[in-house]
Amino acid sequence: MSIRVSEGLFRLDTADTTYLFQKNAFAHLEHLHYGRKLPEGDVESLRQKHELTQGSAVLYDEKADPSYCLEEIPLEWSGVGKGDFRVSPAELKLPDGSFTCDFVLDSYRIEAGAPKMQTLPSAAGENAETLIVTLKDKAFSVYLDLYYSVYEAENVITRRAVLRNAEEQPVLIKKLMSYSIDLPDRKYSVATLSGGWISEANVIERPLLTGAIVNESTSFSQHRNNPALALIEHGATDDTGSVYGFNLVYGGNHQTTVELSPVGLVRVTGGINPYCFLWELKGGETFETPEAVLTYSAHGKNGMSQNFHAFVQKQIVRGDWQTKERPILINNWEANFFQFRQNSLLRLAKHGKRLGCELFVLDDGWFGARNTDTAGLGDYTVNRKKLPNGLDGLGARINGLGMRFGLWFEPENVNDDSDLYRAHPDWAIQRPNRTPSLGRHQKMLDLTKREVRDYLVENVTHILDSAPISYVKWDMNRKVSDFLDGAFLHRYELGYYEVLTRIFEPRPKILLEGCASGGSRFDLGHLCFAQQIWASDDTDPIERLKIQGGLSLFYPVSTMGAHVSMAPHQQTLRDTPLFTRFAVAAFGAFGLELDPLDLKPVERKVIKSLLEQYRSIRQTCQFGRFSRIETGDPHIVQWQAQTEKQTVVLRVRTLVPAARANDLLEIRGLDPEKTYTLRQVQSPLFVGAFGTLLKHILPVKLRSYSHLLLTADKYAKMDDYAEEYRASGAQLMSGVRLHRSFIGTGYSDKMHMQGDFGAMLFVVTED
Ligand code: DGJ
């Protein structure tokens, strides 16, 4: 039993954590502890002492207790107007027209599993236990159910709040968060994933000083700020110290506030963004807030990440692909953009197949008049000029090559220049009295309307059932504008979940990849439907170290779409080695996003061999226990993924210093007693990259532009030195001294020849 209640003390235990709160003398829920696991016993040492109050304090009930001031009490929930001036989790206009409210304990119950939500997606509830604490406003029959679902094995507690209006008059919800928790100040810093288009999920860590840090979005979960957030105790590292993680199972406008109050309490509250939000809750109605996911680890950021990864893989991601290795895909977008014909697609697929791809994805441009991004969006009728045999014909040919077939859609948006918009201009979100603001030349469809939802479901399912489609990329390329209010945006999100449920729940075999101009809408709400999400339109591996590395704080590798594309990179112009592009994408839902015929013949050979090898490490990379390894060098990024028998280590050097000292490779998590073989995956060296430096290796001098060299560059390669050792886990974990790197003083075939952006990939296998 992970939930116990006795004499007003509520105790929630996971494998390594304890969460405690208590009903106090005023029937408020006083928070006592969330953190490392505690034995049962007296909790007096955990209780906030309040013999004295601040000179300016507003006392809750002076007569009953002249030292009880809500501002100074750690609470599980707080109201408005009773002396707590911190960020409130709720702003409700009650039937007396006032925002003053005061929620006190009414009753509680415990249920096995996690009750399914009526309107929103939520965690699966497998092996969970749920405590439902009901609070009631002291003046009105307005109830608040606080749900705490305990996931013991995953060290996660989910929280959400449901408001019930048992009055006859309506209650106006201006703000209703999913949870609120007050922790003691431990000199935290707050980490968020922030950025923008093609620079998503960069980790921003800032100290929490008195005042509030707000992580929010006003247009869905968005590139700008991911809903996830970490609270890192002073001194905590990747592997040590206390770290709390918070996330939301929601892709709409979100807000999480972390506030350090002057008395040294840290309040974290998160949920739907109150931005422009007004929701009338009529008598007898209820309002559900999204489920929030909380975790704690005493083992640093990696500990927090591993808790989240296990939880997301087991309780959030669902469908037939939940635990399956993701197929190696080839997507035609960067190879073709809108210019293709059936034959060119088949050629692409055939070459992809030769390299080892397992799934061919036809991206944008296959329907209607969609030959640029200015027209055709909304008209999902196959363009017969491009695809004379239709999707079923193309799909059958792709299947005939031994590959699965996947298709792109962007159902939520419409171009003005489309038959759909011409027929139903009233289906687009716009204001009658204003010129609409477009994003990527398109308007959003109003998913709050039943007829729009029905149309989308019918339209998309008709296509899905008309061809052998086993993968869908669901894109969404604009932010919201011209909307009514925040409540409308929440209704939109509910409509969107309904559409996804109706399309994909009856089709669990389809692998769904979410996408929104790259990595916008990367969140747990979407992961309840999509098994993976395209992490960014930026496929430059050096940028991806930040993006995938950032996402890995909260999301497992298996959920991050990651592809190898051409270099120089289309957005950064950075020229990175093919091997690095491969090795970074290997820690993701892997694919190619290029035309194989743009690769040199020797590069095609290399990719083929790498994909072959990838199949033997894919399970580990995508589903293994993932850690970021601190190297102490800002220019070396190291990741590792581990299953019981295999460890895969990626090490990328983003900037090479001259005459550098010996490199030490650190590996974690091996059994000191066992014997392992460490093998480095052979990384190719293309002669063209070395120019006149080849004089160090070749007996003859060649001009860098000589025909011989250019031809050799096309067809021949050398290999970088590949390390290999057989040793105990203890020895490998004490650091592997790698062979020296080229510094211009000579050449040996036992040296490494990688420059800036060079990657190394090591596979450690138990004997
Ligand atoms: C944006 C996506 O991120 C790309 O991968 C591609 O699918 C385009 N949309 C297509 O319009």
List keywords for this structure.
767 residues, alpha+beta, Beta-galactosidase, Chain A, domain 5, TIM Barrel, 3 domains, 10-stranded antiparallel sheet, 40 strands, 30% strand, binds (2R,3S,4R,5S)-2-(hydroxymethyl)piperidine-3,4,5-triol
Low-pLDDT segments: none
CATH topology of the largest domain: Beta-galactosidase, Chain A, domain 5
* Radius of gyration (Å): 28 Å
Number of distinct beta strands:
40
Helix content: 10-25%
The tally of helices reads: 13
Number of domains: 3
Q: Beta-strand percentage?
A: 25-35%
Instruction: Give the assembly state of these chains.
Output: single chain
Q: Please summarize the sheet with the most strands.
A: 10 strands, antiparallel
